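#onboarding

Welcome to the new folks! Below is a worked example of what a typical request in this channel looks like: someone posts a single protein sequence, and someone else replies with the predicted structure as tokens. Don't worry about understanding the tokens yet, we'll cover that in week two.

Example request:
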Amino acid sequence: MAGTHQRTDYRVTFVVLCAGVAAFSLLQSMVNPVLPTIEAALDTDQATVTWVLTAYLLSASVCTPIIGRIGDKVGKERMLVFALSALAVGSLLAALAPSIGVLIVARAIQGIGGGVLPLTFGIIRDEFPRDKVAGAVGTSAALLAVGGGFGLVLAGPIVDALSYHWLFWLPMIMTVLAALAAHRYVPESPERTPGRINVTSALLMSTWLVTLLLAVSQGHSWGWASPVTVGLFAATAVALPVWVWAEARSDSPLIDMRMMRIPTVWTVNLVALLFGMGMYSMFAFLPQFLQTPELTGYGFGATVTQSGLLLLPQTVATFLAGVFSGRLAVRFGSKAVLVAGAGLTSIGTLGLVVAHDALWLVVAETTLLGLAFGLAFAALSNLIVDAVPQSQTGVASGMNANIRTVGGALGSAVLASVVTANARPDGLPVEAGYTNGFTVLVVTSALAALVAVFVPVVKARTHVVAGPQADAEADAEAEAAAVASAVRP
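Example response:
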């Protein structure tokens, strides 16, 4: 059982963690291509069915850093089982949902599973030999992007062969097995952060995240100048600085602002914001681009299933890049891997701008993007894990994942506005809409690469531990160095 003296082999732990991350990442993307099917099956409209995505986004954004922080305090294994259980319950409710309202609630419950990500990184840091941490973090981080890609690939065939309900049944089965295995095989955390959970801070953070993401994700349909959208942005402008002020003054902050001011942390988070704008927007708009009818003169008329299969090489490239990123990080450093990933993203997106008239070109460019995504995702996570004290791994990686999500929401909103700015008489976007949208992502990716060049290099601890316990003196030194760099003028 977890917590016993004889600790599980770290390789068994890794398999369990990967299963949890894979289930969460599949649920992020599998639903997107089949929203029209769900809309028809549950007799609703397009505006309402988009809340199936929005509810998941909002819930995951709020829960990811909070559950990561609670895991740092009360135990990562315990919170991992909780997050996986919530994911399973949400999936069960979604599979059985008789109405769109129930499905939206179910998706909000699934969002709690976002805590799987920071907990996974924290457990890897606690349990793995030091020379295996970079590779394991890289592979599990890449699984998030891989799962997103496979979700697009699998959605069509699953719905065609079974029904959309199986988009929830299959992840539920995976998640139940992962939760049981986590309880049985994942050891309890040797590292704990003392202190209480700051409920006021959690509420303030939830307020600005929800108001910001709601405005960004719904602004296109509500109207950017509508009173509701403007009011939500105004509420964010008030809640965000109040949250920062409250955290800075708290003796038990949810997010330690000294940690957030560490040069490596804030620069990597800025890269994550810019990179998230490009990556998640590509996941959202590439299938639409491929599915555009040929009569437009630029589309390929692919079905949902065909567009997923055309993006399969991208997904495979992401996985392979994530697997090898650890070795590349050991040889060249995570910063170099991040610069390469962001730079390749910019090059691949530029390819889509200038040459998208042949299917083989689009497949080649998206495969290059997959390679870039895998490298950058892994490097972002490794840089954050190396930069913070071990006791703050969960909350730091949770906030980094969150900032990527915020970037994705911003990027998708901007791209939606640019792509649909001019439409054909039949309502489809003109070719220039996609060209201009991809150009925006070239700029954000290039900026991400530029910021990555200036990320300060953290000297990673190179000692290898025989067991799961980290060298306490090294952690103390790392924490002291982190705080010193944060407050240094």
